[in-house]
Amino acid sequence: MKKSNEPLWWAFFGAGGALSALCLPALLFLLALAMPLGWIETPSFEAASGLVHHPLARLFLFALISLSLLHWGHRFRFTLYDGLQLKHLESLIVVFCYGGAIVGSIFAGFVLWQL
Amino acid sequence: MTQQTIALEVFRYRPEEEHEPTFQTYEVPLKKEWVVLDALNYIKDEIDGTLTFRWSCRMGVCGSCGMMINGTPVLTCAAFLETYQPGPVRIEPLANFPVVRDLVILMSDFMEKLGRVKPWIITEKEKPVAEGEYLQTPTQLADFKQYSMCINCMLCYSACPVSGLEPDFIGPAAIALAQRYNLDSRDEGSAQRMEILSQDDGIWQCTLVGECSAVCPKGVDPAGAIQRYKVASTNDWWRSKLMPWGK
Amino acid sequence: MSHPTRYRKYHPKLYRTRMPIFWWVRKWTHIHFITRELTSVFVAFYAIELLFLLRTLTRGQEAYDAFLAWLQTPLALALNTIAFLMIAFHSITWFNLAPKALVIRVGELRIPPVAIAGMNYAGWAVFSAALAWLILSA
Lengths: 115, 247, 138
Hints:
Oligomer: heterotrimer
Strand content of chain B: 5-15%
CATH class of the largest domain in chain B: Mainly Alpha
Distance between the termini of chain A: 47 Å
Distance between the termini of chain B: 76 Å
Number of helices of chain A: 4
Largest sheet of chain A: none
Strand order of the largest sheet of chain B: 2-1-5-3-4
Shape of chain B: elongated
Low-confidence stretches of chain A: none
Order of helices and strands of chain A: HHHH
Low-confidence stretches of chain B: none
Number of domains of chain B: 2
Number of helices of chain B: 9
Number of strands of chain B: 7
Shape of chain A: elongated
Helix content of chain A: over 70%
């Protein structure tokens, strides 16, 4: 038997788990709850564009979005294996989880490039 | 005053008589100083000599009397009857193992897995006796001591859902035992053990449910051992991919 | 020694059970586990929502306003509230388990697990404050 390639995905899972745990609660609370509910002022279109225009901001957002998706891909794969006992569909699940995360990351790169 | 009693619902499986297990209820005296194992021995001696179960030391050292009590794996020698009042107390063989008879499970698979991780000190070259002993500082001892407390009672395999779902998973105690030797300053075998544990049926099926550490009667933390192993294995994998020339 | 020893072969008729599909609803610790695992769905949900919010910035004022209006609908608010609770649960469980994987040493001394979790929580506070400062000052 040879060594597993699981470390590739586990590294992304870990990095995405840490980054999403650090950043997403604050982002979600401010942008998706406090702002629509009027607790804080909504930035204008220009201000928002300016905020994300810096290359470092875009790089950070790319890392955050793609790693969050890869985190999901890995964790959800095992949720399907263990939670629903679907391991006999392994190849399908792998394509769906990691494929989905990779497609999402490419889309994120495409959007952030245009900003 | 009449002696208070408590009901024990005991899992019975007699393969020569029946295909399906049944539960048999026994009323036993509820004595303050009795553990569940005492109650089982009372049944065996006084009520029903056909009840089969394993036990030996009665003091939490041998690791042979592990059973499911009300769905949780515990050492029956450390589980006081009183704490299960008013009963009934449901007693089953350890989960995730094939049952041979009544409360006795088959442990061959577990024994094979334990041996696979090479649980002994591996040195590249043995030091001649004349050169004296291998010295170890208290800090070096503290690194692995908790893992050496394992008594192979298999409660962690019983508590681990992944062990139940994936029979090939090498499992908590075996990985903790590997870590016991890896972290020993006298050992040089961690690369050999990594070969075994980095395979698909090694550490990678674990999803950190964490129940193995919660049920351990000796305070070993297999869940922690497995996570540290995942980090080490990941470093090892990336290093071999990014720097294939380095060893 | 003319007769080789003959033992009767041991043929146990083993009783085996299969885990039920919904094994994780039977115990409190397992419910906790499956909830923790399912937080990943909400992490992905918010990553995608954030991506779509960013995309409106490439499509002009109208798209931006429309997205902000959608965020105010009861459906979006309900979804985002659930997502917030789940992602907060993800953060808490993640930081609490971090010491299991992370063993840091300073010289001879091993940093206690509580301190490692503490550093994670401190990092959470710093990241949250920095992001809040960036958004509120925009």
